[in-house]
Amino acid sequence: MTSDNRLGPHSEITLRVNGKPHTLLVDHRRVLLDLLREDLGLTGSKKGCDHGQCGACTVLADGRRVNSCLLLAVTLDGSEVTTIEGLSGDGEEPHPLQRAFLERDAFQCGYCTPGQICSAVGMLAEAAAGHPSHVTDPAEPSGRPVPLDRTEIRERLSGNLCRCGAYPRIVDAVEDVIR
Amino acid sequence: MPPTDPTPQVAGGGPSGDDPLVPGALPAEDVAAGWTEAAGAGGSARTAPPSEAPGARAVRTYEEPAPRTGAALGAAAGRREGREKVSGAARYAGEHHLSGRVYGWPVPAGIARGRVTGVDTSAALALPGVLAVLTPGDAPRLAEPDDATLALLQNPRVPHRGWCVALAVAETPESARDAARAVRVTYAREPHDAGLRPDHPDAYEPEEANGGQPGRLELGDPAAAFAAAPVRVDTAYRVPPLHNHPMEPHTTTADWDGDRLTVYTSSQGGTTVRSVLAGLFRLPEEQITVIAEHVGGGFGSKGTPRPDVVLAAMAARRTGRPVTVAFPRRHLPTTVGHRAPTLHRLRLGATPDGRLIALLHEVTTHTSRVKEFVEQAAVPSRVMYAAPHLLSTHTVVPLDVPTPSWMRAPGEAPGMYALESAMDELAGALGLDPVELRIRNEPERDPGTGSPFSSRHLVECLREGARRFGWDRRDPRPGTRADGPLLLGTGVAAATYPVMVSPSTATATALPDGTFVVRVNASDIGTGARTVLAQVAADALHVPLDRVRTEVGRTDLPPAPLAGGSSGTASWGWAVHEACTDLAARLAALTGPLPTEGIETRADTTGRADADTPYARHAFGAHFAEVAVDTVTGETRVRRLLGVYAAGRILNARTARSQFVGGMTMGLGMALTEGSTLDRPFGDFTEADLASYHVPAHADVPDIEADWIEEDDPHLNPMGSKGIGEIGIVGTAAAIGNAVHHATGIRFRDLPLTPDRILGALLREG
């Protein structure tokens, strides 16, 4: 993209995004979200609040879901980032969550959708790794995969707001994938 | 006749009970390797889960209304733009990387009233990458707009805190933000007043409220009738300011090419954006192109042009570069409109057997000093119940506050919260079941106008909802059901929303390859306009759905009204229906092959869509809620939520259900989590961002069931549809509030029902 992003103090970083390496000079003020959207043209990650309050910018950094609006790009040298555009690999086959969102009509305006899907991918991995949530039964053995019922899914996706109110359908879609 | 598929895949199939769940065939553009099955929503409705009980996992099929014979309409066709949205390919207004594009960042006024005496831009302009700072003194001069909120940077006046007083433009968003922060604005302050109260000396009764309704309606002698009524409820409710907060902040990318202007903007109505820009910039409309291909929600706040599009166009004019202005989230509450706070006084007088004698609904609200906007919250009381003596009035107080505007179901949402809560109080006073009370007051004709209803099935919605919800098992006594520390309760409220429709144009084209293109500058803000308009077209053309392509979201398409007032599909669909009906007739008369350019027909529904009707036309519905109130924390959680609607013919079962559920979700937020505060000393909103203004999150929202009864209304439009985008929010908050009363025995009259309010009352009264 054309934006000159070296107006302030800047540093060179290299990161992989959706499997492709990029070496960029980044303004120290630039967050990962703006690097994706403005420098790499990956506008699938959305800017809803720019303050980590809505989750629309959620991507996977080194396999973990993150609010990309809160991460300064300069701190991510060497990171591996996956965005909504990279979830389906070569793009020929949709990710099962993308397919499930379509099948369940789990969105309306679509603006929160990439974040919801990336968040769900990260969430499923967290549960599989045994991370408890606020609603996990404390008696569950630690370190073992946490079974995800609808209450668990809702709790774990609560960082991703949807103003159109597609929540019940989003939970349906996630359930479809874990069944 | 146009070519037809011998084995049409159109949903609904034949008349003899073919599976009505098979969705429409795939849009051609979605037929791609790997994505095909998903994109078409194939079989999805079959495996849709139940939503009547939390946690239930049994699979049931949706009970779709049976589509009419051979009809695409009614089918659960999948969204045509769905693949783009789930893959991240859908481009919204700020995502057009035009060559040389730069960024604008607004500077909000730091005082509540006064004027700008100076703007020192030197520090901002000294920053690297900063191109310009537009100020009230030097911004491009605009023609005077009809909508005074768009007279941006035209004079030094500051009508409220947050009003835009400068715009910084820079090469990157970061530099623009830093530049905006470096702009030094000096002001001459004046005393301001941001306090709404009914006895405010500046309060007046407006001639009209929003929607063109008279500010006052009085029938009979309501005060005397109320005074003489055997059973009386005299109560008051308050709805706080509310914010639309669509997930996509208001954003525009503007690009000038000589005297031609192109804007990519997040708008619910591009045709109006073009005409407003043409006026402001004194350009012929032909030189302006407005593109709103995907819009990240609006809920009324993008219904007319907002400051982003004007600022972006001015900044692009000044700098000669394409400019994106994306309002920061925290700027939205003061910038794009809000639902004005409403103070309601309700007086209901009834006979001992529950027949209303008098209904008095008096609303006080605020507007800004910029323009008059009156939330028409007393209007639904003119439609709902058979009260021979009726008073419905509005009083408005102009204050030094941001300008209110449309938010989903303006008028109906707060008004029905108050009326339907008061009806619940009346049911309690009468010892009458609240469903029965409403049925007993079903009017023969529209109470406000005396006109016959084109159709009205509120009673059927109440009965069907009660049946599904298990209402007959309800113990009416409040405060008697506990589950450990939880108090449980159920509540009901009615819903209504007027049928609106506006003239639109559209074209339909038959192409030699057997496909059809429908063009209309509709806006798809998440409703699925592309999809439902293709369904309208397919039915009118008698062709399979997959033969029809829809083009929407650009002003080089035939002009169309906005997506608002729940009128979009009716307005656009009417024109599409006419164009396609005409085209089908042309094709039927055609001898020989189609010309290579195809055949195009054009429709303009002016004179029909806006014709006077002898009927009162409204959609109705009923909401049922079950809540659990935690006596330890004061938290209210909704366990079940059911909406049953009578909204004419439902044109797409899948997207309609999503809209109903979405409206109910926003109603849940209105009831429990959403509340904004006008900070009197500062004159703006305390809850300015999504960390403080709580829109419902996943964990707040249970499984929500929305369904409808079939309604055949010949007095609407060729599709027989009423609007569905707003009615879901109407009455939902009352149903939840009534359930909280049923659970706790305490009547709460201020929204939202947050734990502090609930716990305080439980401690005082419990």
What are the SSEs and their pairings?
The complex is a heterodimer of chains A (179) and B (766).
Chain A (H helix, E strand, L loop, with lengths): L9 E8 L2 E8 L4 H8 L18 E4 L2 E4 L12 E3 L13 H9 L8 H16 L21 H7 L10 H12 L1
Parallel strand pairs in A: 1-5
Antiparallel strand pairs in A: 1-2, 3-4, 3-5
Chain B lengths: L35 H4 L42 H6 L14 E7 L5 E7 L1 H4 L4 E5 L22 E2 L5 E7 L2 H10 L1 E6 L18 E2 L3 E2 L1 E4 L2 H7 L2 E9 L11 E7 L2 E6 L4 H11 L7 E4 L15 H13 L3 E4 L5 H4 L6 E9 L5 E13 L20 E11 L12 H19 L3 H7 L17 H12 L12 E2 L2 E13 L6 E6 L5 E4 L9 H13 L6 E4 L16 H22 L9 E6 L13 E13 L5 E11 L6 H20 L5 E2 L4 E2 L18 E5 L23 H13 L10 H11 L1
Parallel strand pairs in B: 1-14, 12-13, 16-17, 21-22, 25-28
Antiparallel strand pairs in B: 1-5, 2-4, 2-6, 3-5, 7-8, 9-17, 10-15, 11-12, 11-14, 15-16, 18-19, 19-24, 20-21, 20-23, 24-25, 26-27
Helix pairs in contact in B: 9-15, 12-13, 14-15
Protein name (chain A): Oxidoreductase
Keywords (chain A): 2Fe-2S, Iron, Iron-sulfur, Metal-binding, Oxidoreductase
InterPro entries (chain A): 2Fe-2S-bd, 2Fe-2S-bd_dom_sf, 2Fe-2S_ferredoxin-like_sf, 2Fe-2S_ferredoxin-type, 2Fe2S_fd_BS, Aldehyde_Oxdr_Iron-Sulfur, Beta-grasp_dom_sf
Explain this structure to me?
Chain A: Pathway: Alkaloid degradation; nicotine degradation. Chain A: Keywords: 2Fe-2S, Iron, Iron-sulfur, Metal-binding, Oxidoreductase. Chain A: This is Oxidoreductase. Chain A: Residues 11-87 form the 2Fe-2S ferredoxin-type domain. The complex is a heterodimer of chains A (179) and B (766). In chain A, strands 2-1-5-3-4 form a five-stranded mixed beta sheet, covered by helices on one side. Chain A folds into two domains: 10-86, Beta-grasp domain (Ubiquitin-like (UB roll)); 96-178, DNA polymerase, domain 1. Chain A has helices at 32-39, 96-104, 113-128, 150-156, 167-178, and strands at residues 10-17, 20-27, 58-61, 64-67, 80-82. Chain A starts with 9 loop residues before the first strand and ends with a helix. Chain A is α+β, with helices and mostly antiparallel strands. The model of chain A has no long low-confidence stretch (mean pLDDT 94). Chain B is α+β, with helices and mostly antiparallel strands and 766 residues long. Chain B is 23% helix and 23% strand. In chain B, the strands form seven sheets. Chain B has a seven-stranded mixed beta sheet with strand order 3-5-1-14-11-12-13, with helices on both faces. Chain B has a five-stranded mixed beta sheet with strand order 9-17-16-15-10, sandwiched between helices. A five-stranded mixed beta sheet of chain B has the order 18-19-24-25-28, sandwiched between helices. Mean pLDDT of chain B is 92; it is low at 1-33 and 36-70.
